[in-house]
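Cross-posting from the modeling subforum.

Setting up a comparison between two proteins and wanted a second pair of eyes on the formatting. Protein 1 (sequence, then structure tokens):
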Amino acid sequence: MNCTKLIGAAALIGLSFTSAAVAQDDLSIGIVTFSSSDVDTNQMIDTMTEAATSQGWSVETLNANGDPSQAITAMKQLATKGVDAIIITVFDSTGLAAGIAAAEEA
């Protein structure tokens, strides 16, 4: 597995997708969203997805339905798939310790 980055959504928004730090072909990005019913979150995910796909990267978004345990499950699924980066929206990172550990291990 090659899950090398676990990035908070706020940090990612400020990160230029064309910077040398992330300029790489064929990256896969996993996004764990708090809820697909939140307009602001959807707009943020759409913006991140558009920026990533414009670089030729693949993006998979999983909805945690506001539940930290579903977010952890989603993070573990993405880590198992070997995505290059996982972006989590809204959740408190202390509640996602098991998912973070799975991503770090991968």
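Protein 2 (same layout):
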Amino acid sequence: MDTKTMFKEFSETSSKEWTSIIEGNLKGASFEETLVWESAEGIQVAPFYHKDLVGSETLTPLQTKTWKIGQFITVLDAVSANKQAVSSLNGGAENLCFYITSEEINISLLLYEIDIDKISIYFNFSFLSSNYIKDIISFVGKSRNNIFFNVAILSNLSTSGNWFINKKTDFKILDEIVDLGVPNVLMVNAASYQNAGANMVEQLAISIAHVNEYFSYFEERKKLEKIKTITFKLAIGTNYFFEIAKLRALRILCNVLQEAYNTTIQIYIITEPTKRNKTLYSYNVNMLRTTIESMSAVLGGANTVFNMPYDAIFHNRNDFGERIALNQLLLLKEESSLDKVNNPADGSYYIESITNQLAEKALELFKEIEKGGGFLESLQKGEIQKIINNSALKEQEKFNTNEEVLVGTNKYRNLTDKMKQNLDFEPFASDILKNTEVEPIIERRLAEKLEQEILKDE
């Protein structure tokens, strides 16, 4: 079939013509006031998009032809964590992420009967140790390219308020790990920025400033060529198209940064649903939220997508919740066929426009952070925290006034819901100030204060 001549009898309609038709149907109402809305990032969203308004198509640089289903496992005991990992892989998981809580965890027991040649394994650590990483390298041998160590000394500082040991020692150990010659070392935990209330421009700008801190450090020591990959961990919200664009904009910004340093580094993006919009009441709605969020991650080009059990904010780990979370991703992949097309968002004028605007605005904010001394200095001065807190307060006010709706909590709540007896742990962020080197970036859900009030009345 000759696609070039299929529609030749139909004349092309310009954006001006579409606008004229719409304005006629509005019968005198303002086009801008009636149909254009503004996002939290200051982006004007139009009712339609046309190639006249977008310009040339932006082909986002992707580094994967398909996405992988991930399973996150907190390791308190190597044997039980191994059983959980094997069960998850048999149940459909394709990659694993282990959170190692202690240097006493035995790697050979943890990875027993796991084919590390066929999957990627991401390690997160509650401690910083080059010797422990040497033990992992010794065990995995030639499969080291499939291991992501996710060393994140700056992320630890920003979320805990303290270095693992101290600044000098942390960077010294990071140097030792990079010198081991393994490809996948560094991670930026950008999820904490979203979970704390940063808007998307801020998430992107702070993340790039975060990476630039590492690039600058290693370039100064003539070691930048040893950095082969950067792993970004992002939290995804339910602003569907904007979240797709966020991931695409991140890759564009990373390319810009790499060009400035004349280097080529692979970017891996792993995602998880945001905690910010998850609720105690009508908690089954969380399944709908995480499904939308996972779809955005897939279409935005994430390498590995991790899901969150619908009851994760108040229940201890349980097989049912985790199985449902895994099945959500399996449905997206196996039944919705969201792994069949590489970079499916290419060519969408709406997504292209949002992508470009997010990238441009984030680049401007990044420059402002660099003028203030860069990520680390801005964090130590509290400037990064101020940026995030200001956006968090604006979003919280929208929730408090029902402009931002979480169904089943601040609107359409089931008054018969009772949760007091269902809480396995405290589901609220602590307001107790600790003695920390910097003000930590605190992750806080929008519904927390309202939920506390409802719990008191049960």
